[in-house]
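User: Can you predict the 3D structure of Tripartite tricarboxylate transporter substrate binding protein BugD? Sequence below.
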Amino acid sequence: MAVPTASTRSLRPLASLRRLTVAALGLFAAAGVQAADPFPHKPIALVVPFSAGGPTDVVARSLGQAMSRHLGQSVVVENRTGAGGTIAPAYVARAEADGYTLLIHHNGMATAPALYRKLSYDPLKDFEYIGQVADVPMTLLGKKDLPPNNTAELVRYVQQNESKINLANAGLGAVSQLCGLLFEQATNVKLNVIPFQGTAPAMTALLGGQVDVLCDQTTATLPQIAANKVKLYGVTTPQRIRALPNAPTLQEGGLKGFEMKVWHGVYAPKGTPAPVVARLTAALQAALKDPAVVKRLDELGAEIVPPAKQTPEGLKTWLKAESDKWQPMLRKAGAFAD
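Assistant: Sure. Here are the predicted structure tokens for Tripartite tricarboxylate transporter substrate binding protein BugD:
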């Protein structure tokens, strides 16, 4: 048997060191491959500020299913409700900026700074913009036995009976609250505003006759209109809408300049990498061409926004414009801030 010499013994530690180095390099290489995994490589959460079954949730689920098909990963709707729709944006603003936590929100992103003195996020500074989704018209409704039969008669009726009229909304920060405020200003009245915790209980109160008037989006009101369970006075858009072709606009009824729609945008936490934002925007744009999404949104009375708005810049520009429009009005109202 050969006896190890001093030189061979001294080479053994070097050989061991080489093996360790090769193993370490292998680990680093594996980590590099994992870090370079293409986005997305796991499910994405699409956070909704309102309850399941509500108008924004319905839009989110239709959109999420289509985006899943184009991304190759599940887009899972997650409802984080409360505080007038401000809990979900705060949660997403604090989430890791990796593209796996997204927010879908409506006009509330523009109005929250005027409604809450201690907002924990800045809608204009704490998010990356993915793009707009769809515009949803609103409808002004009355309980079935409310005497007026058209907008002009309704205006005269509320002006003569303002202390007796109960105006419902879905709560602080809801689009129905904004529409109600716009209606009060347009008719120069101060009604008894009754806030509810969501659209469903507000509609239930209208159907039951506990309240007189409600202004809310077609995603929530079309079934009751179709069933002839409420009085429809008009839509809040400048032109008549496909979903209700025979319904006049409120402007036709004499409320000049009365225009409001619900708009939805998708956001990611600030600092999300530009390639990830681009990938998400492309998936959003593809989803908005998906026949199933087009059909579903059309059934809800929603209208997909033009391609120029389905972009980060389109959403950013619109959010700034809506913030400039609504925040002064809400601050002037005063009582709407908490």
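The first strand starts at residue 44 and ends at 48. The chain has two domains: 44-135+263-333, 137-235.
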